[in-house]
Amino acid sequence: MWKQQKRKQKNWSDRSKIFKLVVLGSTGSIGVNTLVLAERYHIDIEVLVAGRNVALLQEQIERFKPKKIVVGDKASAEQISHPDVSYGEAAIVEAVQSSQSSIVVNALVGFLGLRPTLAALECGKKVALANKESLVVAGSLIDTSDIIPIDSEHFGLWFLLNGRKIDKMTITASGGAFRDKSPEFMEKASLEEVLKHPNWSMGQKITIDSATMVNKMFELVEAHWLFHNRFEGTPNFDAFIETKSIIHALIDFVDGSSTAHIAHTDMKLPISFALGIDSSEKILRPVNLVEVGSLEFRPIETERYRIWELKDEILAHPERGVVINAANEAAIARFLDKKSGFLDISKDIIRAYKKFEDVDTATLEAVFDVDREVRKYVGSF
After folding, report:
1. How far apart are the C-alpha atoms of 361 and 367, rounded to whole Å?
2. What is the average pLDDT value for the chain, to the nearest integer?
3. How many Å separate Cα 64 from the centre of its chain?
4. What are the structural domain ranges in the chain?
């Protein structure tokens, strides 16, 4: 649903029981956790969308018996045993549009997730959103009323809202694979070393984004589009490193008090709220702070995370998130092809951001044009 002159207020408490569900990105961690909850609470799965993890997808098909399957490419589709299998971006959009489900879990990775998000909203469906790129590249064009974020940080911010006047919203970062490594080590880092996250195992792209801190930059832009209208004055968003990933979000109120959302890192908690599951039931075991013992907080420093040079600039101009996203995906592709080093990812993004300072993002067509131009530019390095 496109933004209208009068935005309808979110009603986070309206979490009626969902009987059918579309899961985009079913073989990733968000998708897997969604299906765990769907099985536990007897939610029917109408559509599964996945990439190339054919073996896991086939297991999910046999277990949940969805009506429709969409995969990333023709080769993967030919390996799937199901009467209704298609592939590609257009097929994902069509599956969303033709589904009877009232909610779509979008856990696709990257720019690919934008069109399915828009398609779901245009059909009047709610979107449980883990595809942060949807808001990063087109947040100014999207009415977030029907979006329920299931990133732990944004869920944490929502969870802490209590009607009092807000001074600042803060999200936390793990610091990624190189938070304790020297710049010299980072200069020569291999893909294998980049993917050694200190706290958990994630997909390739998000682990790279965590190491560069691009992921946290995206989450700040996403937080802006989700929560900027909660401030009476100028929105104030920030981030810092909390090495144990126990605290996910904090809110400072104008009265001088602060609250923090503390929980184990398990995506079933935010997903359960998005799916309307009774929050009176225990989803996770509580954090025992005595067992945790101590917490460590660090600033996000530009000496280690070069991309952070753009933090204030992008929050002042969040509509330019499309430039950072396109440059990031193109720069990661260069890194994976061994055409550049790890530190070049951030350098390439900054270079592109400065090149495309004056861009038109007033329409969806313009956003896609900018995306193409930025990718072409970074690909030419």
Report:
1. 5
2. 92
3. 25
4. 20-150
**What angle (nearest 5°) sits at the alpha carbon of residue 207, between those of residues 203 and 211?**
175
Q: Tokens 């799937």 identify what position? A: 80
Dist. CA 310–CA 214, nearest whole Å? 10
20: β partners:
44
Kindly state the helix (H) or strand (E) to which residue 45 belongs, with its residue range. Answer: strand 44-49
Instruction: For residue 323, give the nearest of 344, 307, 300, 299 by alpha carbon.
Output: 307
Separation of alpha carbons 356 and 38, rounded Å:
43
Q: Which fold has domain 20-150?
A: Rossmann fold (3.40.50)
Please give the C-alpha separations between residue 379 and each of 112, 182, 337, 372, in angstroms, as whole numbers.
18, 28, 11, 10
Type of residue at 109? V
109 neighbors 132 (Cβ within 8 angstroms):
no
Give the mean pLDDT of 315-326. Answer: 97
Closest CA to 117 of 46, 332, 137, 69: 137
DSSP secondary structure letter of residue 53? -
DSSP labels for 93-148? HHHHHH---SEEEE---GGGGHHHHHHHHHTT-EEEE--THHHHHHGGGB-GGGEE
> What is the reported pLDDT for 18?
54
- Classify residue 178 as exposed, middle or buried by CB count within 10 Å of its CB (0-12, 13-18, 19+): buried
Question: What is the signed CA dihedral for 36, 39, 45, 47, rounded to 10 degrees?
Answer: 30
> Per-residue pLDDT tens for 168-220?
999 999 999 999 998 889 999 999 999 988 776 778 898 999 999 999 999 99
Asked if pLDDT for residue 376 goes beyond 70, the answer is: yes
Token representation of residue 302: 């530009």
Measured distance CA(243)–CA(349) in Å, rounded:
26
Answer whether 24's CB lies under 8 Å from 104's CB.
Answer: yes
Query: For residue range 221-247, what is the model confidence (pLDDT) as tens digits?
Result: 999 999 999 998 899 999 999 999 999
- Contact indicator for 52, 286 with CB cutoff of 8 Å: no
152 near 267, Cβ under 8 Å?
yes
